Amino acid sequence: MKLSNFEMAVLFALFSSVVLGVVTKRTDRERVRYGLKCFCSFMLALFAIGWAMHFLHG
Known about the structure:
Elements: H1 5-24, H2 28-57
Helix pairs in contact: 1-2
């Protein structure tokens, strides 16, 4: 299986968010909310850094 950089970054964000949600919160509701918040933050950072690299590199 060959994944692009974007696909690998999304998988990293997904797995990291799951782990952070499970190990940092006590209830299932808190875990899901925190996991989604982390995933959205990872994706926002991914797009922001990607666009910054695009404009800086030219």
